[in-house]
Each structure stands twice: as structure tokens, then as C-alpha cells.
Amino acid sequence: MGLSVIYEQHHVIIDTIKNITRGDWKVLVLDETTKKIVDNVVTEDEILNQNIANIERIEESREMNPTMDAIYFLSPQPHIVDCLVADLERRRYRRAFIVWTAVPDPVLQQRIDAAPSARQLIADLETLPIEFYPRESHLVTFRDPWSFPILYHPGCNNLVRRHMEILAEKASGGDIASVSIAMGEYPKVRYYRPRNPLHEASVLCSHLARFVQDRLDGYARRNRDFPPATSRPASVLIITDRSMDLMAPLVHEFTYQAMAHDLLPIKEGDKTTFHMTINEGEDNAEERDMELHERDTIWVDNRHRHMKDTIDKLMGDFQRFLDQNPHFTNDSGNATSLNAIKDMMAGLPQFQEMKEAYSLHLTMAQECMNKFQHHRLPDVASAEQTLATGLDEDRRKPRNALDQIVRLLDDDAITPDDRLRLIMLYVLYRGGVVPEDIRRLLAHAGLPANRFDTVVNLGLLGGRPVHGLKEARQASTPLFPLDPKGNQNNANAGGGGGGGGGGGAGGGSGANDDEEYALSRFQPALRRMLDALFRGHLDPLVFPYIHPPLDPYEDSSLMAQGSLRAAKPSWAGANRRVPDNRQRVFVFMAGGATFSEARACYEASATYNRDVVLATSHMLTPQLFLRQIGDLSTDHRQLDIPLARPPRRAPADLFAQQDAPTQSQPQAQSQPTLQPQRQQQQQRQQQPPPLQQPAPFGGGPRIGPGGGPAVGPGQRPPAPPRPMGGPGAGVGGIPSGPRPPTKMLGQMTLSSGGGGRSGGSGGASYGSSGSGGGGGGIGTYEVPSSTSSRVNGGGGGGGGGGDGKLHKLDKDKKKRNLFGLKK
Q1: Which parts of this chain are annotated as the region Disordered (predicted)?
Q2: What is the pLDDT of residues 461-474, one digit of tens each?
Q3: For an engineered disulfide with 523, which of 182, 375, 495, 609 has Cβ 3.0 to 4.6 Å away?
Q4: What is the DSSP letter of 772?
Q5: How far apart are CA 103 and CA 524, in angstroms?
Q6: Among 309, 162, 133, which Cα is nearest to 643's?
């Protein structure tokens, strides 16, 4: 089995619980954040099977249980520490085994040590850095769409330092360093440093990379056995941000996963779901939210295929099933269309699970194709490809691109969002236009005048949307220059990253003349970056190391090593599993990543025989990107950013005195709280297992669902919709007003010791209040169409741990260490 971040996190959680229980029954106590982390990769039955008698929430009222030990699986947030102290003071359990998901702030640790019963009740204390959410085998998210406005909104100066420390070490949103640490990797850190930057946020990646390097170095100092011995080449962590490629979130992508998330009302929560009618036209028809997850082998096998290939494969697989089971259809039955297949499936009650799975994907594919035709996406995509790559289908500089755009903006079949995307792509392609021309294009497209701010806000991310009338144009250098012969890295790598700042030339058309694939010439800049990395050509000036390697030829030797492995004949690898010693490359995309960029990581993994893992704050759909770009003009106080809210407090009822059960009745007191979940587990075990496809359709279940953000109990309701607005344009069309928050990073002083996340520690003050970086809360980032992200935005402590006899931080733990386009 190849690398799976889902499996890695699942394995370390189960092993940690098993090593603590050691055959004795214990209670598992979670908080709101850790429950989401655990539920994302581990089922309740798997936990209960590790001698866990009951699973409880620390923020909720619970029965006293002084005859049983408890395993506390907690995130080190101030209000969670208060809840823990309340349990210790009340002696709620016999002993406490505490597992933190990140290193607690020294102030928080002192709060625990000061509890009268702490030394007597705490049996063990350790740190397990797993505060992130694996979504796919090679994709990790932090469920934090609030990261985007914090990093790029001009009004968030006072939040940016705290947020970058949170990104680097620990928070409700996630942990860059812990993704690699949890997998036993001590990577070399590189970061994106744009040439001739036009935006103040250009320093974002360099400062974030130094924060991450400090955390990695600090963890290595505290753990002498880290990293564990391995035969793998040294891993690499590349930190970049959304400004590297502004084209990717705007261009239509026609692979199955990206197209579905762009066009369909897929809901993002703790689960990723699509609402549809099951058994349509039958007596037992019902509406249901169908989950898209890693156990769905149809989804996993097809998500990175071009939609044309996906439909062909679905129809081919079903036709083979009918050929092998002729009694399910008459002689005239033939799976020649999606509708014909759906009609035939109505007569297969014996294969309900297979039927529901194929109904889901056939329905999604059909709805995508309907919108593809009704909204004239072939014409829209053709123009987008030319603007994003800078070349037409014949690899020539386009002529009359503006005329093509104007005709499309006048077409009622094209949606308003697609018209706005075309305008944004056009101004990036031109390297800026006169502000009045932007207003004319918006008026011609029938879009509101306040969409001008959305277009102009591209400048906050390194784009150049406006250009003075008398301002001289400067030629911009592409981030990844084109191969003059037109030979890209492989058959699929024809596109190019339009890039953050200039929005200029990218790739071009490969040798594929198929009309469908002519609409997929563009490739994200992330793919071009990985190609350059694995070929040993990644520019060290644009992607420098924090600690440069001693051997200047190290990159070239690693490139040759991977090439030799990839060049082995197919028979040499037959009957052999994927090697465990493949180099691992981690890419962190601050500000959100697209599904096309996730696909690029899988393709690079397969092409270069590496394991590329993409980590990001949240997944971007085009609708969410447009919304978040527009919000950069909104008063930041209207955004209700969780990090700016007052710190959360522990529930008062946890501190209320309760009578402990008498020692003469230990079992009678403990059984009432333990029995229900054990009974539920037995009942679940008698029910049929989750979705598994029949043999003709291949594949078994895989561990762990995908995930998305959700709003839990006690969280604040979503902020109401906000009108688009913001500052007007200044002289020459450049917007006036405050600069983005990362402007202040130029004066930031970084602590060299990897200390805590207190807002006042070292360097400039950013207005954060409270020790340990508190600032929590839960928020909702709503999107007015198909995307509705819900996120945990609480703060928490971080930094170095306190030294105490009971505090054995970071004790040594045993850790163990798809897909390209068809054409």
C-alpha cells in the first residue's frame, strides 16, 4: 500500500490509545476540536474495541467516575485547560492520562501544575502532534477558510502574527509542522519568494517558513530520536501561498472532482455530501445526502479523470456488469447512455449498495454535463485557456482576445460568476487595464458596479489588475518559462501557471488535438513547480532554502535517483508493492488550494515516483474564491473572524460541586455511563458494513472519510450576508486605503527558540490579547451558492512546554511511517 495520510493519522491515534489502556478499561475524554480530528479518521467502534468503556466530551456535564482511569485527548486551548483543571479538582476520574495534540503554552501548563490534585492524579502526560484533518490519501486541510482574510485583508494587522504562529505550530485550524512530524519526517524547508513583487504580502511565505523551521528544530531538540532512521531520501517542505497562482481558482477544470465542486451544490461539512434522490420513481424513493469519501472506490478511481473519460468508464463498467449478468436485462437492453443505465439500475434491488453508488456518480456526471452545455462552458473554457496560458490552441499569441471576451459577456446563457471570472482573467492576462475599462466590462456584462472592488482586490494577492493610462508597461518574466519546443514535462503538463503577480504567459497546447482536451491545456503553477523540483531545476532564488544544503548538487542527485526508479521496466515492479522509501515532499499552500492543484500533486507523485502531500488551510472552489476576494473590501469587523473574538470560557457547571459515589459501590456507579455505548456498538456490529463495491466493480473499503468544516454545539451562528463594498479608486485607478496585514511583517522579530504563541513574545506587537494566544471561538464562512464551509476558529496555546516531573513532553512514540489524466 502506498502512502496515505489518513492511514498514518488513524494508526497513530489507535496505537496511542492501545498503549495507554494496555488491556484495562478506561474512559476517553475529548474536546470539540479533538473529537473532530478523531472522528475524521477513526470510527467509534474502533475506539471502543481498544478497551474504551465510554467516550465523553470535556465541555459537557458528566457523571463522577472516581473508580476508572481516563484518557484525555485534548487541544491545549485556555478554556479546555480550565475544563481539565475542574476535573482534577473534583477528582472526576481515578487517574488521568493526558495526550495533547500540540505542545501547550507554559502558562497553561503552570495552570495545570498548580491544581492541588495534579501530581496525585496525572499518571502520564505526552504530546501527539496530529492537529490536522486528512481529507484524502495525499491531501490535508486545516478547515480554516478564515486564514484567507487574516493573511490578505488590509484591516487584519493585529491578527496576522498570531495566525502565522498558529499555522506554524498549533491552532484550531491546523499545524504545518505536525503534518511532517506525525509522519516521522524532518524536512528541508523552502519557500516561495516572488521576483519583483508588487504586493506587500510577498513576505508572507518567508516569515511563515521561518516560523515552521523554528517549530521543527524545537521538536527535534526535545526529541533526540527524531527523526527516526529511514532509507528514504530527505524530505522537502515547500511553503507557498495563493499569490503564486491567481489563475487556477478562476479557470474551469473539467476533471470529475474539480468540475463537480465547481458546478454542483456539494456541501462541505464534517463530511462532503451531495444531496440527491435515491430510488427515484420507485415507491421507496427518498432524498438523502450522499457522502463522497475515500471508501467510495468509484469516486477515488475517477475523481482525477477528465469528465469524458469518467463517463466512458462508468458506462463501460456497467455494461460489463450487464454482460456478466444477462438476466438483469432483456435482449434489447444496452447501456448506451447515462439515462439508460439509470433506468436499468431501477431493476436491481439485489445490489442496493452498488446501485446507490453508481446512481450517485451517474447523477453527478449527468448534472455536470447538463450545465456544461446549458451555460456554454466550451466557449467560456476556450477563452479561459487562452487567457491563462497566453497562447491559443495553435501555440500562437492570441489575436482579438478582447473581442472574444466581449461577445461572451453579452451572452445570457453564461452565468454572472463566469462573466466575472472572464473579466478577472482578462485583466491578469493584460497585466492590468485602465480602471474605466474594468467598469465598462462590468457594465457590459450586467454585473453590479461594486464588483469593481473584487477585480481590483487581486492586487492584494500580487496580481496587477489596474494600469495607469500613461504608465509604461513593463515586461513580466513568467514564473516558469515555456519550453520553446513546446515539449512539456509529460502529456498532461502543457499548461502553465499564469502566476500571482503578472498573470502573464503560461504553458500551451501539447500534442493532443482532441477538442475536449484542448479545453484543459492550462496546468496550475504548482504542477510546474513540482516538475522543476524533481528535475533539479527549481530556481533557488525564487524558492530558497531556510537552511541551504551543504551539497550544492544534492537536488540533482535526488532527481537522478527518482528518474532511475521511474525508468525501470514494468516487469521489474510486477508483484511488488509500492516501495516504502520513496521521497516525501510536502507542499503547504497558504490562503487555500484548488482541486486542480490537488490533482497535480497526485500526478507528480505517479510521474516521478515520489509521494507529494498537499496541505492547505481550506479547499477553494471558484465561488468561494470570488467571495473571499470580494470580502477584502469589506470592513473586517463584519467578517466576524473567530481569532478576533473574545476567548472562550469553560462552562460554569463543570465547577459545581458534585457528590462522588461511595467506594462500596464502584461498579454500580460506573456501569450506567458505560453500558449504553457498549450496547450501541454491539447493535452496529450486527448491521451490514458500510459501502463496499461488488467484485465486478473492483476495490474494497478504504480507511477514513474525507472531511470538511462544521459548526458544533455552543458555537456562534453564521454572520449575516454582507454587501460588497470598500474603498474607491485613487489616482491612476489604484485603490486607496490601508495596506494588507503582511506589510507589518517586515518589522517582525522572530524568536529563535521556537517559543510560545503569546502575542507579546518577541518582536512587534499585533494587538493580540491574552497569554498563550487564546482567542477562540467557532465561526462560519458562508458562500451563497454551492459552497458552505464551517470551521473551527478557536485559538490555543503553543510553544515550549514547562518542565515538571509529571510533564514528559513529546515522549518517544512508535510511528509508522492516482492518478493522472487519461490523455
Answers
A1: 477-513, 657-823
A2: 999 999 887 777 76
A3: 495
A4: G
A5: 36
A6: 162
Cβ atoms 760, 486 nearer than 8 A: no
Q: What pLDDT is recorded for position 514?
A: 57
d(CA 8, CA 14): 10
C-alpha cell recorded at residue 744: 507589518
CATH topology (fold) of 5-130+649-686: Rossmann fold (3.40.50)
Which contiguous run of DSSP H or E holds residue 9?
A: helix 5-21
- Within the chain, all domains assigned CATH 3.40.50.1910 are found at 133-247+527-640+718-792
Residue pLDDT, tens place only, 83-132: 999 999 999 999 999 999 988 889 999 999 999 899 999 999 999 988 89
Write the DSSP symbol of residue 287.
E
The H or E element that residue 615 is part of is: strand 611-616
| Measured distance CA(463)–CA(497) in Å, rounded | 13
The CATH classification number of 133-247+527-640+718-792 equals 3.40.50.1910
Is the distance from CB of 582 to CB of 608 less than 8 angstroms?
no
Share of the chain above pLDDT 90, in %: 48
Rounded distance, CA 757 to CA 71, Å?
26
CA torsion through residues 276, 376, 425, 382, sign: positive
Domain with CATH 3.90.830.10 in the chain: 256-277+287-374
* Single-letter amino acid, residue 109: Q
- Tens-place pLDDT, residues 728-782: 344 333 344 444 555 444 444 334 343 433 333 333 332 333 333 333 333 445 4
Least confident of 232-236, 243-247, 267-271, 681-685: 681-685
Joined together, the cell numbers standing for residue 791 give 470551521
| Count, residues in the chain | 823
Phi, psi for residue 125 in degrees, rounded to 5: -145, 125
Q: Report CA 660 to chain centroid distance, whole Å.
A: 44
Q: Which CATH fold would you assign to the domain 256-277+287-374?
A: Syntaxin Binding Protein 1; Chain A, domain 2 (3.90.830)
Residue 726: name the closest of 631, 612, 821, 585 by CA. 631
C-alpha cell at 104: 501547550
Looking at residue 482, its pLDDT comes to 64
Q: Give the range with max mean pLDDT: 339-343, 541-545, 638-642.
A: 541-545
